[in-house]
Amino acid sequence: MYFCFMSLVKQVFNFYLDSSIHVALSVFALSWITLLEFHVPYDETVLYFIFFASVSGYNFVKYFGRARFHHRSLTNWLRMVQIFSLICFLLMCYFAWQLEPVTLLVILGFGLITFLYAVPFLPKKRMYDSHKNLRSISGLKVYIIASVWAGVTVVLPLINNRVSIHADVIITVVQRFVFVLALMIPFEIRDLNYDSIKLATIPQQIGIKKTKIIGVLLLMIFFFLEFLKNDTNEYQILALLIITFICLLFLIFAKKNQAKYYSSFWVEGIPVFWLVLLLLLF
User: Rounded to an integer, what distance in angstroms lies between the CA atom of residue 229 and that of residue 211?
Assistant: First the structure.
């Protein structure tokens, strides 16, 4: 009985990760952090939209090719992910209907980037391999992801609440972009075992040691940008210091042959912990 229970728990946990619920919670957490930092009331419409859009978008990117070419032999597991993604897509549409018109225009831009990130559209002669999408362009992947995360988690919540784009907002966008870049380094190091050399990821180009040094510099920039803002407080700075230190530890101990959930659960869950910290401190 115990082993059956543990097996069920493991399957549920793996589905939680594989269906992108965990990464969507991280995007949700960063979006809520933005509302807290700019003293905007909790906006369930935009936050729920971002959560369900993240699940839909990530699963589209991860499983588009697999579902497209192997639709007749899909496993039950992948069919479950597809059904779950469809439900999330419908819920995303429901919350999108309630957003501000200007927010929807911005969402169209991010949606187009997500679509082109997964779907082949570039001429084959311009690409290094046969995928022909944005994801396959040499050295571009991490910057696209960081840009989308920064825009979705900072710009969308504020625009939907009619907050003007002032200096502090721009600094926060840059800060979030840098944070996501640093957060992705453990993933990039792990994926050295799997990524095509043609992707030209940062660790592939300069090695693990130099990549970690860049990660440390990014975290320093992430932390000290806070002091350029006009509106900040000791609680935000304390939370930022703790998160920077945690990211630094995960960065230092990242390696090619890391534990299964090192990046996919622990590193990806750092934004959720950041949100919990702020909720406790505010």
Answer: 28
Per domain, the residue ranges of the chain are: 19-281
Q: What is the pLDDT at residue 127?
A: 44
Answer whether 38's CB lies under 8 Å from 175's CB: no
Measured between alpha carbons, how far is 47 from 130 in angstroms, rounded to an integer? 36
Exposure b/e, 127-161, CB count within 10 A at least 16 = b: beeebbbbbbbbeebbebbbbbbbbbbbbbbbbbb
The helix-helix angle for 101-118 and 141-150 (nearest 10°) equals: 160
Q: Is 42 left (phi over 0), alpha (psi -120 to 50) or beta?
A: beta
**pLDDT tens, residue by residue, 145-176:** 899 999 999 999 999 999 999 999 999 999 99
Residues 33-54 have pLDDT tens digits of 999 999 999 999 999 999 999 9
